[in-house]
Amino acid sequence: MEAREATATGESCMRVDAIAKVTGRARYTDDYVMAGMCYAKYVRSPIAHGYAVSINDEQARSLPGVLAIFTWEDVPDIPFATAGHAWTLDENKRDTADRALLTRHVRHHGDAVAIVVARDELTAEKAAQLVSIEWQELPVITTPEAALADDAAPIH
Q1: What gap in Å lies between CA 106 and CA 126, rounded to an integer?
Q2: Which Pfam families does the record cross-reference, listed alphabetically (predicted)?
Q3: Is 71 a member of any domain?
Q4: Which domain holds residue 93?
Q5: What distance in Å separates the CA atoms of residue 107 and residue 50, rounded to the nearest whole number?
Q6: Is residue 104 part of a domain?
Q7: How does pLDDT run along the chain (156 residues), one tens digit per residue?
Q8: What is the CATH number of the domain that holds 74?
């Protein structure tokens, strides 16, 4: 069998979506609006490691247009992998199932603890800002050396 010589290396190639993107005609998820569509916004952790002790969503629920607010108590605690190899048939190649849709135990700044659903995006955003959470902060590991130390607390 004779080896074929590669011809694409070092050459430019045309992206199939390039013209649509540079002319503004490309459509993204945010471009689609459907009748009766609702909007959701996450409530995210402002701390890097800790527990949500309590949550107060009364102000958020009182906004006209807020349809629902879900927390870690409302969704199943089914772990999934952050990266994209969760569904491979080879168990040795699967990524670690290390997170849930919503969590009470936050492990990084920005972890999702609640979701606000509203009739419009602005109301969902405002309601998410009105959700108040009391936090119990835990120690944060900020360097590779601290993470590798014998007495380092596991994050997952």
Answers
A1: 22
A2: Ald_Xan_dh_C
A3: yes
A4: 37-148
A5: 7
A6: yes
A7: 566 666 667 778 778 888 999 999 999 988 898 999 999 999 999 999 999 999 999 999 999 999 999 999 999 888 777 665 556 667 776 677 777 889 999 999 999 999 999 999 999 999 999 999 999 999 898 899 988 998 887 776
A8: 3.90.1170.50
